[in-house]
Amino acid sequence: MVVRRGEEDHLLVLVPGDRTISWPKLRSLLGVNRLSMPEATEAKRVTGFERGTITPFGTLTPLPVFADERIVGRRVSIGAGEHGVAATVDGDALIRHLAATVADITDLEG
User: Fold this and answer.
1) Count of beta carbons in the 10 Å neighbourhood of residue 12
2) What is the DSSP string of the chain?
3) CA 36 to CA 104: how far, in whole Å?
4) Is 0.85 surpassed by the pTM of this model?
5) CA angle, 22 then 27 then 29, to 5°
6) What does the pLDDT look like over 69-87, one tens digit per residue?
7) Are 77 and 17 in contact (CB under 8 A)?
8) How many Cβ atoms are within 10 Å of 66's Cβ, its own excluded?
9) d(CA 49, CA 33)
10) Planar angle of CA 73, 90, 53, nearest 5 degrees
11) pLDDT, averaged across the chain
12) Given this model, what pLDDT does residue 109 score?
C-alpha cells in the first residue's frame, strides 16, 4: 500500500493479508505525527498503478519500502500491477530485493 508522509513524500508498506497497518506503530517508526492514504489519483500518479493493484515493482517514483516483520521467513502473495494478478514469492528475498525496512507495523484485522 502507498502511504503519504508529506507533500510529495510517499512510501510503500507491505502488510500481510490478515493484518492492517497500525498507524501508531508506523508513525512511531517514522518519527512523524501524521500519515495518510493518498487520494486514488495521487497514488496512481506516484506509483503508476491504480488502487488495488499497487506493487513495489516498477513504481514510477522510487519509494522506500517498509515491511511488517511477519513477512520474514514466509512465502507471500503480492499484487502484480493489475486487478486479479498476484505473484507468490519468498518473503525474505522480497525484503532483500526491495531493501525494505522490517518492523512490527501491523495489527490483526478486525
Assistant:
1) 20
2) -EEEEETTEEEEEE--TTEEE-HHHHHHHHT-S--BPPPHHHHHHHHSS-TT---SSS-SS---EEEEGGGTTSEEEEE-SSTT-EEEEEHHHHHHHHT-EEE--EEE--
3) 18
4) yes
5) 95
6) 999 999 999 999 999 999 9
7) yes
8) 21
9) 27
10) 120
11) 96
12) 85
* N-term to C-term CA, the chain: 18
Predicted confidence (pLDDT) per residue in 1-51, tens digit? 999 999 999 999 999 989 999 999 999 999 999 999 999 999 999 999 999
| Non-local CB neighbours of 78 within 8 Å, separated by 6+ positions | 14, 55, 56, 86, 87, 88, 89, 94
Q: Given the C-alpha cell 502473495, which residue does it identify?
A: 77
CA distances from 109 to 9, 34, 60, 87 (A): 26, 21, 30, 22
Cell readout for 84 is 486479479
